[in-house]
Amino acid sequence: MNQLRVLSPGMLTTIQDLGRFGWAHQGVSASGAADPLALRAGNLLVGNAENAAGMEMTLIGAEIAFEHDAVIALTGSDFGAGLPLWQPVAMRAGQTLHCRATESGARCYLCVRGGIAASKIMGSASVHVMTGVGGRPLQKGDVLAIGSEAVRRPRSAARFPEPWQPRFTLRATEGPQADSFAGQLFEAEYTVSEESNRMGLRLRGPTMPSPSGQMITEGVALGAVQVPPDGQPIILFVEHQTTGGYPKPANVISADFWKLGQLRPRDQVRFESVTIERALELLRGQEEWLYSL
Amino acid sequence: MARLTHALHGVRGILNLHPAFVSVLIDFDPRLRTHREIEELVWQRMEAAEERASAPARLVEIPVAYGGENGPDLEDVARHADLSPEEVVTLHSGAEYEVSFVGFSTCFPYLSGLPAKLATPRLTAPRKHVAAGSIAIGGAQAGVYPLASPGGWRLIGRTSAKLFDPHSEPPALLKMGDRVRFVRAPEGKL
Q1: Cα separation of B46 and B40, whole Å?
Q2: I want to staple A13 with a disulfide (CB 3.0 to 4.6 A). Which of A30, A138, A141, A152 is the partner?
Q3: CA distance A119 to A150
């Protein structure tokens, strides 16, 4: 079987597909690619189904030795590998992919034609880093088999639309407790904290009065902005808890989920309020771009 | 909530269901379903579910080693309730609980039915490490930590029962609506 070998894993490199859905009622959040748009695009570019497993690299990339010929695509942020992003690239047996530290956002995806043949736990190959469901981050010496799940020809290069580029404005719809907040969230600028991880992006900014302690624990969604008693918002991310008791003034829209995966510690972000109708329009536009690849 | 969650399982376009005490969050794919369609579906399924008799709840027994290093907060819970640790154990293991819902983190059961005397506020500063299988009290709720994690509930014992095993089918030992009894492990051993 064709395979690749991890020479160096970088900072945090995991196998991800689009997530482990259908288990939230058992307290298991989906996990999955932090920038799902990049993983889906990478897969489509190499001719995979969009949910095929790929490699998610965080801030500092991996070094990967290709032991057989392979067709790959790098998407998301530029990790200085010296290869063009957002297009299929042929790797030769014996060649090594050297990713370095990020030159833009937080994550770079490596998709391989045929997919990475990782075993699926509860229906998904995604690693849930905080609980260990689905495995662990990659380590030096790991050998990964390349699958044979390609479904069509590789595509030509994609151009990531320029207007999507700034990742620093997060569009959000009203959250379930929006009425308890006076819109402060949309007025301030926030800094992404170093304590952020795949469970949540912790923001630092002006303290917002939070009516916490007055609500009954309820289900929480990806992208929900929750405000604990300290008044500093947390954006629930791919490995979020499935229920929570903190009030939520807003929810980041699906079309901007990819931005969450590309935010780095110390990035400055703002929130922009949009309606659900606008959020759906933006999502449709993004899907059209994706399926035109 | 259990009935509605059950009735919505497997519906096309629904990605995840997050039941809680008095709500169910429905995570659906907006490319496949509109908010209005989901709302209509909820009303339909609720009506249909009410007509069907629900299956009798099963009773799950969970062995517990109380106190000592397995339950470092047993003494504090006893002091708060003005009881002896022995009386806390008798009350805790004498009650029958119901799984209100499973949420927060992997397979964590929120149990109702804790004897009122045992209600104890959470720790002001959560522990960084709670051992897997810890039997806990958080306010008026009882629970069990399935995996090692941080946590702010009071720990009164530990079980060797596996509440979560990703390789078994189903992976969770407990589900919403199950009845639960804690059984004191022989000689207090795990």
Answers
A1: 10
A2: A138
A3: 17
pLDDT of residue A164 exceeding 90, the answer is no
Considering Cα of B38, then B40, then B41, then B46, what sign does the dihedral take? positive
In angstroms, the separation between the Cα of residue A193 and the nearest Cα of chain B is 20
Helical ranges in B59-101 per DSSP H: 74-81, 85-94
| pLDDT computed for residue A165 by the predictor | 66
pLDDT digits (tens, 9 = 90+) for B161-182: 999 998 888 889 999 999 999 9
Q: What residues have CB less than 8 Å from A236, skipping those under 6 apart?
A: A199, A200, A220, A221, A222, A223, A224, A225, A226, A244
Can you give the pLDDT at residue A288? 93
Query: Chains A, B: CB contacts under 8 A, how many?
Result: 103
Structural element, H or E, at residue A170: strand A169-174
Q: What is d(CA B173, CA B165) in angstroms, rounded to the nearest whole number? A: 8
User: pLDDT tens digits for A45-77?
Assistant: 999 999 999 999 999 999 999 999 999 999 999
CB hemisphere CA count around A52 (13 angstroms)? 29
Residue type, A3: Q
For residue B27, the chain A residue with the least C-alpha distance is: A221
How far apart, in Å, do the first and last CA atoms of chain A sit? 29
How far CA B65 is from CA of A124, B112, B185, in Å, comes to: 35, 21, 5
pTM of the model: 0.93
Site from B21, B105, B111, B163 to mutate, A interface, most A CB atoms within 10 angstroms: B105
Scanning every residue of chain B, which has its alpha carbon at the shortest distance from the alpha carbon of A223? B27
Q: What's the angle, vertex CA A49, arms to CA A134 and CA A35, rounded to 5?
A: 60
CA pair distance A246, A236, nearest whole angstrom: 11
* Cβ neighbour number for residue A67 with a 10 Å cutoff: 14
Name the token pair of A265: 């510690």
> In one letter, which amino acid is A237?
F
Q: Considering only CB atoms, which chain A residues are within 8 Å of B19?
A: 25, 219
User: The tokens 């916490």 sit on which residue?
Assistant: A212
Residue A47's identity, in one-letter code, is G
Whether the per-residue pLDDT at B65 is higher than 80: the answer is yes
Please, what's the b/e burial string for B81-100 (b: 16 or more CB within 10 A of its CB; e: otherwise)? bebebeebbebbbebebbbb
Assess A244–B contact: CB distance below 8 Å, yes or no: yes
How many residues are recorded in chain B?
Answer: 190
| ipTM attached to this prediction | 0.93
Integer distance in angstroms from the first to the last C-alpha of chain B? Answer: 34
* Angle, vertex CA A122, rays to CA A118 and CA A124, nearest 5: 40
